[in-house]
Batch of 2 targets.
Target 1
Amino acid sequence: MSFVIDQDNINSFHKDYQDRPESAVLERTVTKNGVNAASFDWHSIADNNPTFSIDLKTGDVADQKQSGRCWMFAALNTMRHSMQAKLNLADNFELSQSYLFFWDKFEKSNYFYENVIRTAKLAHDDRRVAWLMATPQGDGGQWDMLCALINKYGVVPQSAMPETYNSNRSNGVNEVLNNKLRHDAVILRKMVQDGKSDDDINVKRHQMLSEVYRILAYSFGEPPAKFDFEYRDKNHEYHRDADLTPQEFFKEYVSWNLDDYVSIINAPTADKPYHKTYTIEMLGNVVGGRQIKHLNVTMDEFKQLAIKQLQAGESVWFGSDVVKSSERKLGIMSLNAYNPQQLFDVDLDMSKADMLDYGQSMMDHAMVLTGVDIVDGKPTKWKVENSWGPKVGKKGYFVMSDAWMDKYCYQLVVNRKFLSDELQQDEDQAPIVLKPWDPMGTLA
């Protein structure tokens, strides 16, 4: 049945507001300062003192600037941490995010064309087609997508492909590229619907990709096929390795077997039983590359895996909903950072499962765990390396309360060796395919 708001209702609401003795002062406070400032709880500062029983040395933080490359920055940060320790590199050493940014957008364009052709006989307003066209490509990504890029293209140090205006501020190139991809989708869909041959479609697709390559090369510069790796270590000793390919550099200096690293999620929704694996329809970047795959575990298992990897001296890539209960300037992620429930005297509490099912929360940012404070055998808070530069938090590092992790952390990446035998068997299962718009398919 409908409920129509009439004047009697409004009079009742007005009376309830006026009868509250705190209304006048809170109205002045919130209108002047805003919701967050008015509801900030200073106790969260004392509760999240940045001291940790396990604290890895990881150097200077990076800065993704005005781009959505957090997943890429976080992943390359975990790799550079091990490189810094092995090669005694300077604290400000970075791997090139711009290099992988170029190849990611190039491969995403081809992946988009693949899905456009596959869905070409569906109506343009079919939900899958509409989902594809909403954002043909963007800056975000997943761990497995990064692995697919590195397996194909390797990595380079930032000195071999530095940042550009467009890698630091990606809105302009994204607007042009998405315009082009939608334009191309019209052509490809019509070719399929008109019964054009695969050869004809591939010729057109090749032309389209050549144009994408040109857009990206103008915007980011053309990626190096070979380069010289030169650096001075912390002892000021000079090193040079000449004429390397990006694949050779990754093999020699990063030396990771990416197959060892797996994605773990905590998604306590009814449609995702624990100890099963999941993938997401139409989500990826490299056609024929590594498939996105998540193993869903309990939150206790989730934390213990992160702790094991930190105890072994290795940082941990993770994904979360960073904007919730997060104080950017102070670098605090804590459930008591703000208290809008108390401020407005309303109930806003939702379970983690309900937040995922009803769109209140999803993974929107990837960072790196570099420490944890364990008291009486249990984690109380975590040290987080962000990629927003040194002017936020404690020189770019944040403190995350353990309760915040429970509620807003959804994904982490760990070495398979830290999984129990049972979890390794679970991870080996063929994944269940989720719909394209599933919250576990959001890009960090």
Note: The chain has a mean pLDDT of 97.
Target 2
Amino acid sequence: MLLYQALEAAGRSLEACDVQAVFALAELDAGTVQAVITWITTAGKVPFAR
């Protein structure tokens, strides 16, 4: 559930293949899942330099 919330907060709508990826990530250990959530959260807040 936290992965979905992080993706939504970053402005990413989930497509069918995304849902499968979220389920696969959710099966990983808690530390790994938290790292992915942190990456998503950070990516949603930090503008990328071009």
Note: Residues 30-45 form the longest helix (16 residues).
